[in-house]
Amino acid sequence: MTDLLFPARPNPVLPVEGEADFPIGRIFCVGRNYADHAKEMGHEVDREAPFYFTKSAHAVLLSGHDMPYPPRTSDLHHEMELVVALKQGGKNIAEADAMSHVFGYGCGLDMTRRDLQAAAKEKRRPWDTGKDFDNAAILGPLIPAEEDMPVEDLVIQLEVNGIVRQQATLGDMVWSISELIADLSTLYTLHPGDLIMTGTPAGVGPVVKGDVLRGTIGDFAPVETRII
């Protein structure tokens, strides 16, 4: 066994209802996957192909923990999303086979330093500092997928201090789960443990210290946090 110069960081895991924990690999995030959200951000949906950015697994904050307001921003935004967890990897996956790669689903918050993201867009630079930072992926427990689960019929919703900010159905996504898995597998070799955050509906907005966030999708375990 090779000696390490210092202890490796522990691999982040997600709790799973009724099962062992799910080890997190990469986190792929889908941009502008709801037409109304793209519109509110001043963009049109590119229907030729989805596009992606990533978050580190070490950016994960488990639901139920407080989120410290991040540094070097004055415009922290919430983005409520469906999280798809993969149990099986591969490349060039056929869309017809894509759902067999899904382990389960969860609720997630793609937290965004919007001012840093906007500055990066203006200078045509990557979004990393606006999207991938400590506690930027707040994730709830996973629920194993069931065969023919009608995920597209479920309502996705986010409340801030008890007031609904975001609400849509998952069927409003521009790119379906199977389309996203198939497309990602032409860009990367996917692996068990990879997560896909599938985009956010309209209604994104700022949060401040003291705000309490609660996101739900159907009967999935909610994602909850308080900004401190």
Automatic annotation (TrEMBL):
One Pfam family of this chain: FAA_hydrolase
InterPro entries, A to Z: Fumarylacetoacetase-like_C, Fumarylacetoacetase_C_sf
PANTHER family found in the cross-reference section: ACYLPYRUVASE, FLUTATHIONE S-TRANSFERASE
Residue ranges annotated for the Fumarylacetoacetase-like C-terminal domain, each copy included: 27-227
Taxonomy, superkingdom: Bacteria
UniProt protein name: Fumarylpyruvate hydrolase
Organism: Yoonia litorea
Keywords of this entry: Hydrolase, Metal-binding, Pyruvate
A GO molecular-function descriptor: metal ion binding
